[in-house]
């Protein structure tokens, strides 16, 4: 690598390398996405190609422990074709991206690495032992900070050097106490690892002479991104040889604060139970958790039942097992006292995981005893790799983002009722004279999306297989794979038929639909086709849940898992869906007609999809014939008769 560049050697034999060419290229990090032309219309911004004449090193900053080299990459695209305008870009033919190359001083060799274990989720440095004859040669080490007790003999001791997080001085005054509180709440977990005051929060002075580029300062910063994907980010830098954490910054989006204020407006608040405070504390706890080394834990919500989850005398200040989950706001159903909106202390899993990662001088027996607890309901772990985020991905329905309780079927039914009631209240909530209807529409859309998200949590029970992280001999009552019980799968299907597929599953107040208008920008020109597309909205929700059931991997899993306990096979699944979507002598409404037609299209497409196994294809073929027979006897008014004739023609044409 060095040989590619002409270098200068000084009197002491040190090399000076002309690295500008490296920094000004994409040799270290790819900046421009390699997107095929046919997909570029789907991008918000098509950068085009780097322009060397407009790419330059903008700034070099040297600190005591690191050097930052900031490069401005200039791009040129004479014919941009993004899916939407980016208003933060003046002319999307000419754009730039700033890249910061961070060079950090390596720490000394006095850090003691700790081997990772699949039962507890830490970010890890990947190490493979090529000298072992073990079938699994991974020797990964977890990412963790160097914490050393001042008093090694004390059961509880302050560290020689605590982990310090600075709250950036740009943080709004009302929010600062919430962020400080969240940072130091992690001491609850570290006390179980033997440390007192291990995590310290400080507020950056307005006259501070340092900035967040210095890796000696871990800073919680704020960004105002035009279209942020997440509310916060928790990146960190670790020694790849040992896993020792060197530096971490947290970036939280300002829109998360406005989201908290909107929660107050929708759900109400008082000083004892403020959704804004709980949201900011929970968000900060989550991002701090990442910078302590913890990965997501999407199984954490499977802790309490749908009744006790609202009872703070049971849950305390945390109603889920870990703040590392993606949890929706927890809303009590009508007639039930409101519990926590969001978790505001580390959960059982978080405390256990920190003990695993940070307890000093842990013996092999102590490690083994601690890890043996992983099968407890409050300590189960599942992360991004195993999440059921899209149709056909992974197997375990407990490992789901934005679900809630260890009975998501019951919780979802309750939540749907709560959402419908809240939708009816929106005109009263957003009734400020002179305001536009944009916030009302945004809240309506958000609540309806929540309905769809909770119904997906129901749909993924069908064909689900629990995947347990355990080792041989750990728990005689548990195996690595366990099918979702037949009764739960059938109950899930019953709820879908009632809450998603039924003729009356979706009814909207016409007086509310008339109000769903987005605010029009004065600088906007062009098409204003923004009337409520309510049929599209409903159909997307219905087909999304169906796609989690009808995906070829799920249909095949129904048969595969029948060899170790599953009793709900593809033919019965499709029979139950048929009975929910095609009801004898029912006059389908327009939502139902849309669903019936899209469902038929899906079954027809599946017959031509080689990804389905033969058992599933036979069940699909049988279901199409049942629908064909159903539509042979058209009934109802002319529109309904025409609809059934159309479905009948689709099926005949496909089968022929």
Tell how many strands the DSSP assignment holds.
17
Radius of gyration: 28 Å
Biggest beta sheet summary: 5 strands, mixed
Strand order of the largest sheet: 10-9-11-15-12
Percent of residues in β-strands: 5-15%
Structural class: alpha+beta
Helix content: 25-40%
Discrete helix count: 18
Q: Which residues form runs of ≥5 with pLDDT under 50?
A: none
User: Mean pLDDT, nearest integer?
Assistant: 92
Cα end-to-end separation = 63 Å
What shape does the CA trace take? globular
How is the secondary structure organized here?
Blueprint: E1 8-9, E2 15-16, H1 20-23, E3 49-50, E4 56-62, E5 66-76, E6 94-104, E7 124-125, E8 141-142, E9 163-167, H2 176-185, H3 187-192, E10 199-203, E11 218-223, E12 232-233, E13 236-238, E14 245-248, E15 250-253, H4 255-267, H5 275-291, H6 312-315, H7 348-358, H8 364-371, H9 408-429, H10 438-459, E16 465-467, E17 481-483, H11 486-501, H12 510-513, H13 534-550, H14 552-560, H15 570-581, H16 590-607, H17 614-632, H18 638-655
Parallel strand pairs: 9-10, 9-11, 11-15
Antiparallel strand pairs: 1-2, 3-5, 4-5, 5-6, 7-8, 12-15, 13-14, 16-17
Helix pairs in contact: 2-5, 4-5, 9-10, 10-13, 11-15, 13-16, 15-17, 16-17, 16-18, 17-18
Question: Describe it for me?
Answer:
With 656 residues, the chain is of the alpha+beta class. The chain is built from 18 helices and 17 strands. The protein has helices at residues 20-23, 176-185, 187-192, 255-267, 275-291, 312-315, 348-358, 364-371, 408-429, 438-459, 486-501, 510-513, 534-550, 552-560, 570-581, 590-607, 614-632, 638-655; strands at residues 8-9, 15-16, 49-50, 56-62, 66-76, 94-104, 124-125, 141-142, 163-167, 199-203, 218-223, 232-233, 236-238, 245-248, 250-253, 465-467, 481-483. It has a five-stranded mixed β-sheet. Strands 3, 4, 5 and 6 form a four-stranded antiparallel β-sheet that branches. It has a two-stranded antiparallel sheet with strand order 1-2. Strand 13 and strand 14 (245-248) form a beta hairpin. Helix 13 packs parallel to helix 16. It is globular, with a radius of gyration of 28 Å.
